[in-house]
Known about the structure:
The mean pLDDT is 82. It is globular, with a radius of gyration of 19 Å. The chain has three domains: 1-53, no CATH class; 57-111; 112-193. It has seven helices and two strands; from the N terminus they run H-E-E-H-H-H-H-H-H. The longest helix has 28 residues, at 113-140. Strand 1 (21-22) and strand 2 (27-28) form a beta hairpin. A two-stranded antiparallel sheet has the order 1-2. By secondary structure, it is mainly α. The two termini are 21 Å apart.
Amino acid sequence: MRKLLKFIVFASFFSANFISIDLGFFQLSPFRIAVLLSLYLFCLIRLIPKKDFINIIPRGKNKFSVGVMLFWFVYAIISVTWVKDLEGWLRDIYFLALGLFSIVFFSHYFKRIKDILECIKIMEFMIIIHNAIGWYEIITRDYRFLSSQNLVYYVNANSRIPISMMGNPNNYALLMLFGVFISYIGHSGTNLG
């Protein structure tokens, strides 16, 4: 299960349309396949045989984080009563469910600092890949991962804007900002592991 969760960390850095199967209403990417597989395995290995539905939510040091995400998720579910955009609401529920899933599963399976540092190293590697793609886009103006509707805007722009697989420059810039801190944690955390 730990290897599958580490693959989820790796696959989360690819856009849904990079490698995916189009099912019409949604893109089935390797990330989404791994999430569905890990949910299935969790139910098959831990939940159904042990019938331990109460202890799904970990009670260790992460209980506050899980509590906040659970409260946020429940509030979002209740908000269906006043929401005007049901499609947008479903998309937001999906992302909140992924966040809740991530905190719960990672809390169950990553109890050692070594596991957390390995995930950070995976994230750091993927950020370096996105950085290289961004530099490639700046130098060549060749946007390989951009949708055709946005391609014309960025190729004809005066400035050379990196985007990578993030869909827009704001998301790319946010990834690079987080990348600085993830790299710092990865390099300073090696003394802990």
